[in-house]
Amino acid sequence: QVQLVESGGGLVQPGGSLRLSCAASGSSFRFYVMGWYRQAPGKQREIVATITPGGSTNYADSVKGRFTISRDNAKNTLYLQMNSLKPEDTAVYYCNRRPSWTYWGQGTQVTVSS
Predict the structure, then answer these.
(1) Contact yes or no for 32/105 (Cβ under 8 A)
(2) Contacts of 111 (CB under 8 A, 6+ apart)
(3) Confidence at 57, pLDDT banded by 50, 70, 90
(4) What pLDDT does 27 receive?
(5) Under 8 Å between Cβ of 17 and 82
(6) What are phi and psi of 76, to 5 degrees?
(7) What are the CA-CA distances from residue 31 to residues 71, 72, 107 (Å)?
(8) Can you tell me the distance from the alpha carbon of 52 to that of 61, in angstroms, rounded to the nearest whole number?
(9) Which tens digits make up the pLDDT trace of 70-80?
């Protein structure tokens, strides 16, 4: 059973930055397309960014140019560098495979507010 543990969220002012991390268990992490998802209050969960095993990336239009997804396959860890944060980025952020497993971690709360 895979386990995903997200961390790095917090409260930040508009224009600020955060770096999220996701520690994944298991030896197959390196073979999967991985992604960061987010769910804002009252909204459906949406994909934010994805990264292939080889490092190719893709981003939602709403975060393109501000967020950077990366991975360290040796450490089974996924990252999301978030810059120029906006209030509309406020959400719980999750990592998962793309397409996702049915299992989800607890997520990490990101709140962008002055």
Answers:
(1) no
(2) 9, 10, 11, 12, 90
(3) very high
(4) 77
(5) yes
(6) 50, 45
(7) 12, 12, 22
(8) 18
(9) 999 999 999 99
**Confidence (pLDDT) at 2:** 82
9, amino acid identity:
G
Nearest to 93 by CA among 2, 1, 18: 18
- CB-based burial label for 73 (10 Å; 0-12, 13-18, 19+): middle
User: Pick from 27, 13, 31, 16: which is nearest to 97 by CA?
Assistant: 31
What whole-number distance in Å separates Cα of residue 62 and Cα of residue 55? 21
Q: Which residue has the tokens 């996924």?
A: 78
pLDDT tier at 18, thresholds 50, 70, 90:
very high
